[in-house]
Design a protein that fits this description.
Elements (H helix, E strand, L loop, with lengths): L4 E6 L3 H14 L2 E6 L2 H8 L7 E5 L4 H12 L8 E5 L12 E4 L3 H14 L23 E6 L5 E4 L1 H6 L11 H4 E3 L10 E9 L5 E13 L2 E10 H17 L6 H14 L4 E6 L9 E7 L14 H7 L4 E3 L11 H6 L3 E8 L5 E9 L6 H26 L16 H18 L3 E8 L2 H8 L1 H18 L5 E6 L2 E6 L5 H16 L2 E2 L5 E2 L3 E8 L6 H17 L5 E3 L4 H16 L7 E10 L5 E12 L3 E3 L1 H11 L2 H23 L4 E6 L1 H4 L4 H12 L6 E6 L10 H10 L3 E7 L6 H6 L4 E4 L1 H4 L6 H16 L3 E4 L5 H9 L4 E2 L10 H20 L3
Parallel strand pairs: 1-2, 1-3, 3-4, 4-5, 22-23, 25-27, 27-28, 28-29, 29-30, 30-31, 31-32
Antiparallel strand pairs: 6-7, 6-11, 8-9, 9-10, 10-11, 12-13, 12-16, 14-15, 15-16, 17-19, 17-22, 18-19, 20-21, 24-25, 24-32, 25-26
Helix pairs in contact: 1-4, 2-3, 7-8, 7-11, 8-11, 13-14, 14-15, 17-18, 19-21, 21-22
């Protein structure tokens, strides 16, 4: 066996490093090292690794120039050949390069160029004339030839052209007019032009319809005709592959969805076989067949997965591709022979940490002409299957992965939201109707306060048991938050069926609960109901409507259920009544400011807090902000309420600063209505002056969905607040449609990742990717990052590993009223003082 080649990948661009690494890693036979800047490169070279070729990103970055100067300063690397990677726009060949290729050609051309660079002569010395490289005239990946004039004899050809004319002998020596026949009877030579209709004629009589780009060039003083041929069949294959990848996103993540995706791949890519195996690292049962599609005629006997050598190699992390007649991969495998495959792909399914979760087999009983596109499409499809297997594992290990509420044993909010989305997708496919119920315990706060949290926990456990006993096995029950439970009732034939279950739930709660001391406790519930698809077709909207219906049940005296009133008159009447009550909330001392701590990710020490308004109605109890804030914004009441919250929170933050001296940052939300105030900056300045709070301790949070189109002079207003010394944060990041340019224009100090993405860490790989990208982008823009909705240890570890600066969520602390938050700060001070008192 030959020794593997040492390849150094050097470019500041992470996407190019990743693409180069994947291409060379897939090819095999390379030992890969990478560096992102000159400092990292110098550290790497100090260990004197054995290197043979350097792949360099030629993007004009000064770091690349510095790094190459450092590389050449090491005698062992002074003459290493360089292969440059350039972007896809025409230009001038990079100086000093043994070879170059465009970014789009990395997957197909790079490995060949790296090996060829070892045998190439050194580049022209600096200072001598550099011949322009004519290949820059064409798109990457084109099948090109160069012919002499006037005879049109081909003197040079590219790898792509050789593949199109495989097994026919060399292309060099053939006449251009014999190889590429122009349409409409045109003859060679023709002037420079693009997209000329033509046909590539093979010696075996086969013809390939395509287009040609023509350039007349001078090569070493001789006139040449350079022709780039594009195979239009590849374009059709690429379009089908792109359409496939877009369609795969609509498939579910359960076993049925994986089977649907496998069938779709087989049909769209014209495959005879597609199979998916699950082989989780913790499983002791061996590979498990999840999906198996056979599109060829007749029937076959599938060998047992435990006796397949190629499958074992693939599950070891190695990709196996045998898509054309030139492949040297083995065909003598029991599975390949049983299925009669002439071309096949076996690809490992990897999670984010490159652990093997399973394998994908795709194959045909013939050779095809679309090997490159087929290989790329199937590689992209593996990400879809891998994420499905990862979510499948997460569901199976729900309790370990934090998807089960530890107190009641019910699914928690994360798992419920996932099941709700799955139910919606199934209902859209089958046309079924289902109901969403929100069950809220009446006056639960008073139970906790008067009888203690231990009794409150027993009440929640008892409620969970009674809810389980009230529904069918096919229905879903979850503890959504605190004393709120949610339910999904499926396969609804008549709405009366749902109403009977809701009545059963209310009656079940009316039976007194027995306490340990022999006493009994009466606990009732209010239930809100919404229907799919009549009331909403999105999960979030279904829950919001159920929430509105639940508050309707509370307003009617509690201990009953209500259906969401999609009747306009009834809805308007409810909103009018609540708006009237909300107008008196400040005057009647019904509003409360709660504070939720924000902690530094590495130390978990408190560095800030967010002020959150709550409405404690004397009759309806604590009303959700998600319910009354939209009413306040629609009625304009958000302006006086927002100013009251700002003043109250700033005064309290100043009091805590005087008492504890922590310099905690205070976050206060600004709504779009408040930002429309022309005097907002003066209002904030007055509040800061009256309360004495340092402006640098105040952070004003602006929702990402607010834009300059909806709020005139938004940037000017935020600039004025920022100039005053206040910090600006973009809240709920990822839920709006703000452009990168828009974010750069705002004077934002920090970005807050929306909790809907954070809560799906460990569940949805796509949301994990969004969180990683947001952190990287924010740091690139010199912004800090706060993650909201951190609920479980897995969230913490993921965010800490990916460099998130600060965290906020139930894992650390729920929003607390003023006295409770004061106790939290006092306890922190006590622990710090005790720590200081301990001798080193």
């Amino acid at each position: 066996m030959t020794e593997p080649l040492g390849v150094l990948i050097f470019t500041p661009r992470r996407d190019v490093r990743r693409a180069v690494f994947d291409a060379l890693d897939l090819d095999g036979g390379f030992v890969l090292l990478s560096a992102r800047d000159s400092a990292q490169l110098e550290t790497l070279l100090a260990d004197a690794p054995p290197l043979h070729v350097v792949v360099v990103g030629a993007d004009g970055n000064p770091e690349v120039t510095r790094g190459l100067r450092i590389l050449r300063s090491f005698p062992a690397y002074a003459s290493l050949p360089l292969v440059h990677v350039v972007d896809d726009t025409p230009g001038v060949a990079p100086e000093g390069a043994i070879d170059w290729l465009r970014e789009s050609a990395i997957p197909t051309e790079l490995a060949q160029r790296v090996r060829a660079a070892l045998d190439a002569p050194p580049p022209t010395s600096v200072g001598g004339p550099v011949q322009p490289d004519w290949r820059f005239a064409f798109d990457a990946g084109a099948a090109w030839v160069v012919a002499s004039t006037p005879d049109g004899c081909i003197v040079e050809s590219g790898a792509a052209m050789e593949r199109l004319c495989a097994a026919e002998g060399p292309v060099q020596g053939r006449l251009l007019q014999e190889l590429i026949v122009l349409a409409d009877g045109a003859t060679w030579p023709v002037p420079d032009g693009d997209g000329l209709a033509c046909t590539l004629r093979r010696r075996d009589g086969g013809e390939i319809v395509g287009e040609a780009d023509v350039r007349h060039v001078v090569d070493r003083g001789q006139h040449r005709i350079a022709v780039a041929f594009r195979d239009l069949r590849s374009a059709d294959s690429a379009q089908r592959a792109l359409a496939l990848l877009a369609s795969l996103e609509g498939c579910q993540s359960d076993d049925e969805g994986i089977g649907e995706a496998a069938a779709m791949i087989a049909d769209v890519l014209d495959l005879d076989v597609v199979a998916v195996w699950s082989a989780l690292p913790e499983s002791e049962l061996g590979p498990e067949v999840v999906a198996r599609i056979w599109n060829a005629p007749g029937q076959v006997e599938w060998p047992d997965a435990s006796d397949l050598p190629l499958l074992k190699i693939c599950l070891g992390g190695e990709s196996l591709l045998s898509l054309d007649a030139t492949s040297d991969l083995p065909m003598g495998d029991p599975l390949i022979e049983a299925l009669g495959l002439r071309s096949y792909v076996l690809l490992p399914l990897l999670d984010e940490r490159r652990n093997v979760l399973g394998a994908l087999l795709a194959g045909r009983r013939r050779h095809g002409s679309d090997a490159r596109v087929l290989g790329l499409a199937l590689r992209a499809a593996t990400a879809r299957f891998a994420s499905a297997l990862e979510l499948r594992r997460a569901r199976e290990q729900g309790r370990v992965r934090g998807l089960i509420d530890t107190l009641t044993g019910l699914p928690n909010r994360l798992l419920f939201n996932d099941r709700l989305e799955t139910t919606i997708r199934e209902a859209e496919r089958t046309g079924e109707c289902f109901a969403t119920l929100l069950v809220d315990l009446d006056r639960f706060k008073s139970i906790n306060e008067t009888l203690g949290h231990a009794v409150g926990d027993k009440v929640l456990v008892s409620v969970a048991k009674r809810l389980r006993a009230s529904v069918r096995a096919s229905d879903t029950i979850a503890r959504y938050a605190g004393d709120e439970f949610t339910m999904i009732l499926r396969h609804i034939i008549q709405r009366d069926d749902v109403l009977r279950i809701a009545e059963k739930v209310v009656q079940a709660m009316e039976v007194p609960l027995s306490l340990d001391d022999g006493s009994e406790l009466q606990a009732t519930v209010s239930v809100g109901i919404s229907y799919f698809p009549d009331d909403a077709v999105e999960g979030e909207l279904l829950l919001r409507h159920a929430d509105e219906a639940m508050y309707g049940a509370k307003s009617l005296g509690r201990n009953n259920y209500q259906v969401y009133a999609n009747n306009v008159d009834a809805t308007q009447q409810q909103q009018t009544e609540l708006k009237a009550r909300l107008r008196h909330a400040v005057r009647n001392d019904e509003l409360r400011v709660f504070y939720q701590p924000q902690v530094e990710a590495s130390s978990e020490d408190i560095v800030g807090m967010e002020a959150l308004v709550r409405w404690e109605h004397p009759e309806l109890g604590m009303i959700s902000p998600a319910f009354f804030i939209p009413l306040a914004e629609a009625s304009g009441l958000i302006v006086p309420i927002g100013e009251w919250v700002l003043r109250t929170a700033c005064a309290q933050a100043k009091a805590w600063e005087s008492r504890y001296g922590l310099g905690l940052r205070l976050g206060v939300n600004l709504s779009a209505v408040q930002l429309m105030q022309s005097n907002l900056a003066s209002v904030v300045a007055t509040v800061l002056r009256d309360t004495g709070l340092d402006p640098h301790q105040l952070e004003l949070e602006v929702t990402e969905s607010i834009s300059v189109k909806t709020v005139p002079h938004l940037v000017e207003t935020l600039d004025a607040l920022h100039a005053m010394g206040c910090r600006i944060a973009i809240d709920d990041f990822g839920t709006g449609a703000a452009s990168l340019d828009y974010l750069r224009r705002l004077p934002a100090d920090r970005i807050k990742i929306d909790q809907s993405f954070v809560r799906n860490i460990g569940v949805d790989p796509d949301d994990e990717a969004i969180v990683r990208a947001t952190i990287e982008m924010a740091h690139h823009l010199k912004r800090g990052v706060v993650a909201e909705g951190v609920e479980i240890e897995q969230h913490l570890q993921f965010l800490r590993m990916n460099g998130c600066d600060e965290l906020q969520g139930y894992l650390f602390c729920r929003p607390l009223p003023t006295p409770a938050f004061d106790k939290l700060l006092a306890e922190r001070e006590r622990l710090v003082n005790e720590g200081r008192a301990v001798p080193a």
